[in-house]
Design brief:
The chain is of the alpha/beta class. The chain is 42% helix and 14% strand. It is globular, with a radius of gyration of 28 Å.
Amino acid sequence: MGGAVSAGEDNDDLIDNLKEAYYIRSDLVERAFRAIDRADYYLDEYRENAYKDLAWRHGNIHLSAPCIYSEVMEALDLHPRISFLNLGSGTGYLSTMVGLILGPFGVNHGIELHADVIEYAYQKLDSFIKTSDSFDKFEFCEPSFVVGNCLEIPPESRQYDRVYCGAGVQKDHEKYMKNLIKVGGILVMPLEEKLTKITRTGPNTWETKKIISVSFAPLILPKHNANGKPKTVPLPKYEVRTLQELARFCIRHTLQMTTDGGESQSRSRGSSFSVGRGLAVAGLHKYGPRFKRRRVHRRRCNALVLATRQVVGSGMSPAPLDSNNNQGGRVEDEEAARRETSSRRVARGARGLMEEEEMEEEEVEEEQEEERETGELLQVQPAVNVLRERILGLPLPEPLKRFLLYYRNK
């Protein structure tokens, strides 16, 4: 399943395409998708396919198509401090994006059938925490995974606010899945070839919405023990945060709030990056603000120039002759004069837009010429990780600084 949008050159380009196709519709989901490079969850020899809107499988490792993950994230209606259960958590890509939204006081659990995939997921999670600058732009709810079959969860297990199943659910297991969510909770799963959103409105009442047609491998049925009874798989425990962890959250949160003050709010006006910084300022867009703005601005100018040319052409056309020279001629003369004045104003505006466009094209040509002369690509300087710099500048012992930075390598 996939191929709904064009392939991107990089992660940001892919997400731009998903937004244009209206698969990504909310700022919160967009932020999470931009923060995690999809290619980081591919094996190195397959990274070139990471930005295509296609599913990928290698052995037990599997990633759904980006358009599917987009619809899932939007349908889950995520927000901080809620609990999430991922049935068939796989590489942890989806769980990690969800964790960026849940925040440190949410619950982020996953169950996966294959032990080797759980190991792979923890490797990718550790790499994200220790090497990605995006990590410092969020308050993160780290996911916990267990090995097991999601159809073997004990009936007395706690229920969750949000549940997603990454395998095709047979009709016989629909009730089982519904009982995993709390009243007011949301379950998203492939049911009868449709990605389906089920909201629990009461103890025994539900609202069901079909989202899109999908094709998922079906759930694998559990194997019975020798005595004929299925085994049970306990989910991860709800852990109480330690005092040290709470202190780390509080300090990092305070530093982030003082960093994302009024100055950054003025920069991010009109941006979809809604935590106080624009995407480019935060270093989440590959080319920065200048390149992106220029491409969009030129497209707008071309559309306006074309429209104004049409207006000028229609405004300059001669009016029909009046058969009565003594009646109505003055009115039509005045109307023609007004049309001519309006046309001149539009033409002047069109010339101004064309001149602005020509100046931008000259600027691009100058940059290309400089690139040819120097033999180097002009690149925007990477954004500074302000939170990290502020922590390193605090008058604290080095072990405490390392603790606040999650013992990160970068």
